[in-house]
Structures are given as C-alpha cells and as structure tokens.
Amino acid sequence: xxxxxxxxxxxxxxxxxxxxxxxxxxxxxxxxxxxxxxxxxxxxxxxxxxxxxxxxxxxxxxxxxxxxxxxxxxxxxxxxxxxxxxxxxxxxxxxxxxxxxxxxxxxxxxxxxxxxxxxxxxxxxxxxxxxxxxxxxxxxxxxxxxxxxxxxxxxxxxxxxxxxxxxxxxxxxxxxxxxxxxxxxxxxxxxxxxxxxxxxxxxxxxxxxxxxxxxxxxxxxxxxxxxxxxxxxxxxxxxxxxxxxxxxxxx
Length: 251
Known about the structure:
By secondary structure, the chain is α/β, with parallel strands linked by helices. The protein is built from ten helices and twelve strands.
C-alpha cells in the first residue's frame, strides 16, 4: 500500500508566506525559508511553494528563494507560479525544485503539459486545478482564483492526465481557508476518474478532516497551510492519529 502524504503549502507574496480565506484577505504567516526547514524537520513528506501573485503580476517565480528553500530541505519540493515554458522549468529544477506546478498556463496552452512531460518526465509535472462549485457544477478558475472559466473540473482533470501530468493538485475554492473540511465528494470522483495521484487542498481545520479526505475523498496526499503555519495541528500528532485510523503514513 502506498503511504499517504502530508504536504504543507507555502503561499508566497512579496517574499513572505501568506494565508487567506477563499483566496482573499491574506495575512502574514512567516518567512518561507524558515518554515520550509521547520516542516522538513517535523516530518512533512513534501512541500509545495506557490508564488501566488506571479501570474497576475506577469513575472517569473523568485529563483533566489527557491534556491534558499532547496538548501534547507531534504524532502521533495514542488514550485509553482508564473511557469509557462520549458526554460522556466529548467531554471527551477536547476535551482533545486523536484517538481513544478502549473495552473493558468496549462489552461491557456494545454500543449505545455505534453511538452514538460516529454522533456522532464511526468513525475515532474503537477497540474494545479483551482475550482469552484457553482450550482452543482465545478468550474476551473485561473490567476489565483480570480478569473472564472467555463471549463469543467472533471473534463479538465481527464485531459491533463492524458497529456502527461503526473499529479493533480485540486483546490476547492469553496473550502479554501474555511477549516470546514476538504471537498471529499469531488475528490472521490476525481480519484475514480483518473489514475494519477490526487492532492487534496482547501478546507483543512482538524485532524479528522485529514482522516476523512484519505478515507472518503480517496486522496493520495493532503495539503494544508494555516493549520500548520499557526501551529494548530502538529504534523507528528496528525500522522500518529492517521496511523491509528489505519491510514499508512511515513513516521
């Protein structure tokens, strides 16, 4: 049985880690390099580092910060934000990233998924999907959730798998920052639909929410931010509780 992964997410804006609710009302959560080292030391399985304003500000991810974070951690490290070409990915991998996350650029030019998968291997390519449930249908949103589209979540998930994505990072905008639990029905449907790992994101508030997303949502990994950044859920306690619930994790 594959172990389930716990993944702290570092949302970066102006060089600081930030966290909001439903993608707005951001507040400071600390220095990303310090947090990254702390999480690696405390038993996180992977890290995700998202430069959340890079796409909107039409600039590239900050390479110097990626270098500093990579120096501090010994666990897989995914970087996203403003990535739109093979050259961007090449630069980030040379800076120390293990994987890249693409979102808006993949929707605008889906061939990018094929190109990156062909060049670097599917294990390197994470497609992040920010989606919002509107009247019972899930729709993909771009640019940090600020631009709605008519693309349906499940159609897009199938396409990104076919194009060579190695993982899908699904964030429910309805659940993001609410601490009311993950979007487990949508997650379970995604898991049944595709054969690549699904990372659940948006809604973590309690240890039970993680148990539920692995059992009911069939997620392969669970990503969270504020509950880790503000010390509400210690990672080791979370993993011990998951073990008690017969969920296999690395301790």
